[in-house]
Design goal:
GO terms for molecular function: maltose binding. There is one protein chain. The longest helix has 19 residues, at 425-443. The protein is an alpha/beta fold. The protein is built from 17 helices and 14 strands. It is globular and about 70 Å long. It has a six-stranded mixed sheet.
Amino acid sequence: MLSDLRRATRPVSLLVAALIGLGSAGCGGSAPAAPDQDAKAPLQIWIRKPPGSPTEKTAKALAADFTKATGIEATVTAIFEDFETKLQQAAAGKQLPDIVLNDTAQLGSLVKQGLVREVNRESVAGGDQVADLAWHATRGADGKSYAVPFSAQSFALFIRKDWREKVGAGQPRTWAELDALATAFTTKDPDGNGQADTHGYVIPGSTKRGYMAWYASGFLWANGGDFFTEKDGRFAPAVADAKSVATVDWLKAQFCTAKTVAPGAVTMETTQAHPVFEGGKAGIYLTGPYNMARFDKNLGADKYEVIPAPKGPDGKQASLAEGENVYLMAGSKNQAGQQKFAEFAISAPGQTIGMAGDTDGNIVRLPVNSAVKLSEVRKDARWQIFDDVYRTAGRYSPAVPDWTPFRQAAAEAINAVVADCGSDTKSHLDKLAETFAAELLRQGVAA
């Protein structure tokens, strides 16, 4: 999901005709020929952050230091609302920025439209210091790289520590212990107000933007299930296999049998889920490190703890890995400058600027450069939990040409199962597998 799933891919079919002139590198075509090159031409950098925000200031600081180091002027434009639409409009007018800093999940769409240049990993100075897992997030369905990694993140459980201690439970180390804790939070009045108004799990289970699939993915992998099997770049549906069905059945049980999920989950997005946790309505929330500053302020750092999600029944640990890439956009007048910016962004100085210490201005959540020690930049030790989870259990979304329709279909199927306690999980997932198979054929990567 995209960091907090806020950066959803928007429909672009209405602009396809206008984009033909930009090529179709991801669909068997070729990217447009570059214009005459000027190694001193200024760079336009777009970043998906709110204008005037601390993150915009950090991005501008990064660009300023890049200019000092290279002499190449760089201007940052922060856009948050309708970012993808505005990018499509720029593409239609052949006025793409030189650089885009955006989610790893956008790669498939950008490649498909031919809006980004291929990157030769071996030619990127400092690329050998970047973790292989992070480079995986730049790989298209053809196995080639189309971006340079910039920021990474994983997810962990935020748990009401004061509630856990109130009900006399330890930190959960298994799914069974996690479920028991959720039950205790639901039935044992952990806030002590004498009312049955608390629950275990906060789940952003809406179908919008694929939230339900995002939430379920780490648990699916930890239980030995999967969306696909893959061999040599060809995929086959695995979402109706026994382990996958068992995972969705387990999730359904929290909604329907244990009833430990906060009400409204099936229509809840993360913007609605955050207040449920910090407002004392539920005490277990799988989310990212970007929420720590918010919860510290609104709830109190002493009232909750962050721990890795427990291993699955088969002893596997998994977390969805996400982050942001530096995309080198097609049609730039300064391709050499594009690469120099990417190289600066992944360097130790660039990563350190982007991390922004312990402030809320970070545009690098977890560093991708192995030479950067997290503990030397941030004093908040909780960040190390996410870094450890990322490096030991992180897993990116499948490298199909366009993950978006699969994520959406999976969200709708899983949502339908948990929203209807009389539903047949296997039947729903069999239909989902059929949908996956048809989409794989359409995208040309079916096994």
